[in-house]
Every structure is written in structure tokens, then in C-alpha cells.
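S1.2 Input.
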Amino acid sequence: MQETENTVEKTIDENRQGEVLSGVGNKNSSKKMYIESYGCQMNFSDSEIAASVLSKKGYTTTNNIDDADVVFLNTCSIRDNAEVTIKKRLKHIVGNKRKNPNLKVGILGCMAERLKSKLLEEEKLVDLVAGPDAYRDLPNLMDKLDGGDKSVNVQLSRDETYSDIDPVRINSNGITAFISIMRGCDNMCTFCVVPFTRGRERSRDPKSILDEAKNLYAKGYKEITLLGQNVDSYRWSDDPNLRGKSLKEAPRKDVIDFSKLLELVAEIAPDFRIRFTTSHPKDITDDVLYSMKKYDNICKYIHLPAQSGNSRILEKMNRTYTREWYLEKVNKIREIIPECAISTDIITGFCSESDGDHQDTVSLMKEVVYDYAYMFFYSERPGTLAAKKFDDDVPLATKKSRLREIIDVQTENNKITNNKCVGETYQVLIEKFSKKSDKDLCGRNSNYRTIVFPAEDYKAGEYVNVKIVRATGGTLIGEVVGRVEF
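S1.3 Output.
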């Protein structure tokens, strides 16, 4: 999933940035919870599930931490910096107990799974710990707290997808929303902790996905993002005999795969936009690309993490493809969908990476000319295959220097791709007022580019056609040439 540390462009939504607060809601309940979400989009989506589960126990969300009876931090464990930030925040919140001794503090998500004992017993920073598959158990865990006990559940599940839970949309602007279509990950990338904190891959019943999407559209939402650690691995069959590996190997006619799911959701309404993240290069198929091409409301944007431009490092990362294979996939995307924007994840300074290996990554970025990039230096995570098998032998100063170089390359890529947009006209879904002025509105086009234009009499939730008149490093400036009719 996409993160925001050391990036040139922002993630899929400002509400999804790492270390961003997400507590909102009714302030009149006798029981109030305050939720802060960190890390990837899935964590923000999970916070909405947790809020829904606890709402049945009488809790509502509040946007004022001082009003809360319980504070939850939904955490990210993918890099050391994320954990350091969350621990600092925890210590600050625990300090608030001097003013409110009855305040309870809980940790949710990936960090909860990885550091449960340390957080509860050694550092005594939290009262409750719940892993990503334990949110149904939150009412029981809260009962234990009420009885004066610490409580923990980090058990991973082989089948939990929360498909019957209607999320409380605490992270939404009423126009865009997330829908989780699957959970977990079977890709054992050596640098990644996700398979150990989120468990094995499992897909959600497509009927529940469609019902949730239709409900959102009926409520006035205009765009959804389908979420999964690897959405292209989505596969479902109503046949109970097709499960696990057998489902993955079943003929396409016997299953609903991701391309079929995309089409089913896209057919809900022509003015209902569909986005998705994240794709693994080895799994995104031509069928998905042709589905994207077929439907105008499936956005022409693919997040295609490369991680490295060097084949030896890719093998060491267990990415299962080479540099050459990855470039062929990029070329196939542009052959089928010429207008498609492509973003990537890059890790610098992975174990044994040489200067030459790094230059292969630099040259990959220059060859592809990514529309956006999410860039990080390697942070060894305890429990991963890399931590067990390889030496983290690239000096930190070298990692940071290499990161600075690829950020500079992507800055130039942004100028190239944004300048190409000047003079073009795009369909834009209006999301909100511009940060800089309430006389301007902003929204996104299909390629996920931010476009700012005069507000006039337009409003959030409308589609307008905007002609681009100039570009900055991260934003397009335009003027409306008319409303969109569907």
C-alpha cells in the first residue's frame, strides 16, 4: 500500500497520509472514542470498521481528544520511523491521563500485532491491543478494560474480511470513500512485514462489495477506491470446493477475478468513479487493462511498485520479476491505455545495494518517467525474511544520499508530466476548496492529478471539464469550460 514518507507527491487522499489524525463525529454520546490513523489506506479503512463495531456498544467518534473515553491509534509497522512517531504520540497521550485518569488507550493495526507485549507490559503505554483481524472482538476487549484488566487480541484469521460490517465513514469527505475487497498478503517480499502482521490473503464476497458500493452511490458518493494489499490477486467463487490454492488455479470462467469485479462495480453508474490500489506487477493482467480501457469511469491510474531498478536486488527482495520484465509490463500498460498514469514505490539502500545497482534504479525512473513516486530508504523490520537472511550493510548516510538523488529525478519527472498537461482539457471531480483560497476549488482527474480552478458557482461533488492553463511541480491550474453531462 502507498505511504507518504519521503514522497514528492501526496498519497491517494490527504486523509490517508501517514501520521494524519482522523477523529470526527458526534460529541453528545455518553461514550466517546477518538481514532488516529497512520500509514496506508488500509489502516484508514480499518479505522472505519473498528468505529462501526464499537458503535454497536454505544460509542460514537469525537474530533476532540479531550472529550474521549478511549483513544485508539491505528498503527503502521512498515518502517522504523512510523513506529518511532507512534511511540512519541503514545507517550504524549498517556501524559494526558494526569488530567483524565479514566482515559483508556488502545493500539490497533500492524504495530499492535508486532509489539503487543512490549507496549502492554514493558513500556506500559497502552491498555488494549487489537490486531487487524480482531476488530469484531473490540466490545469484549472494552468490557475487560471496564473490569480493570488489560486486554489483547492479535490472533490472525484465515477468513476474516469484515464483509458484513458497514463502515462508519470517519475518513471521508462525503464524495470519496474506500472499500476493502481483500485482506492479507501471500507475497513474501523479503523487506516487508505485512504478511506477518496482516496474515494470509483472502478475498471478500463480491456481492458484499457491490452492495457497499451501491449504498455509497445512493448516499451521494461519487468515487470509491477498491483496497487490497494486492488487488490483482482478488479471486472469488461461490463453489465452496474452490478455496485457497485451488481457487487461484481454477479456470477463469469459474471465478470472479479482479477484472470481472472491476466491471461489475463500474456498471453501477457512469458517474461513479472507480480507483484501486495496490497492484503487484506480477499479477496485473491484460484483462484488467482491457477492463480499464472499456469503462470511462474506471480511472486511468495504476500504482505499480518497482521497488528497485536492478534485477539482482529485485531477486533479493523476492519480487519475482526482473527489470526487463517490469519494463515490458509498463510498455503493455501504455500500449493498451496510452493515457494511463503510472506511479511507483522505490526503496533505496536495500541489503548489498551497490552504487551501480542504485544507478539502475535512477535509470529506470528516467526511462519510465513516473507520474508520481513514493520513495523511502530501506528500514530493516524485525521478523522479515531480509532481517533473518541478509546484513543491513548499506550505511545510513549512503541510503539518504541515494534517496535524495531519486527524489531529484522524480521532481524532474513531475515537471515533464505536468507540463504535458498544459492546454489539455480534463474531466474533474470537485472535492473541496483549495488550501490557499476559498475562491478556488480543487479536484482530481482520472489520472489522479490535482487540478485547481476558480470556484464560481460550482460545488463539491460535481463533475466539470477543466482546461489546463499552467502547471506547478505538483498541481495543475485551469479554468472550467463546462459542466459534465452523463
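S1.4 Remarks. Residues 3-29 have pLDDT under 50 and may be disordered.
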